[in-house]
Amino acid sequence: MEAALLVLDVQNDFTNDNARMPVAKNQVMPMITCINNVIEKALKEKIHIIYIGNEFEKNQYISNWFRKNASLKGSEGAKLNEQLKIVGNLYFSKKQGNAFSNSSLVRYIADNHIKDVYVVGLFAEGCVLATVKGALQNDLTVTLIEDGIAGANDKKKNNALRKIERLGATIVSSSLLLK
To answer: Name one Pfam family in it (predicted).
Structure first.
């Protein structure tokens, strides 16, 4: 049975010091460090490593206004954070919270017989939650790596983790995976 690591939205406009729509600053470096360690483990285990990023169209005026023009397609802010370990070239863009809104990702998952997904990235209360729902709707087994997740603040992250657990995803610490 195949597995994939989904690395969600670790982009400049959410993680850098000058981010347009930042996650909680105290969560950024611990999250990136965790994700990089999990990527190393995934490489050793021959797990598919899939990067997913928001790439919003410039003509999405109203939603872009609410997002402070974060992660516009082709912008520096839409690029993956330079501290994130990048391996391979599996990258899928999205314009909605749920990564499974991209039919190319859904097809890749199906074509590669992936049944288990590990999820890391941000925002816990937004795209992570929506992607977990999407994965479960696609009959995938979902494991969320809690120290590889960030949110707008600690409270929102913790509330999202509780919701995700109630949906049926397993939540683990990376320390359990990195043995």
So the answer is: Isochorismatase
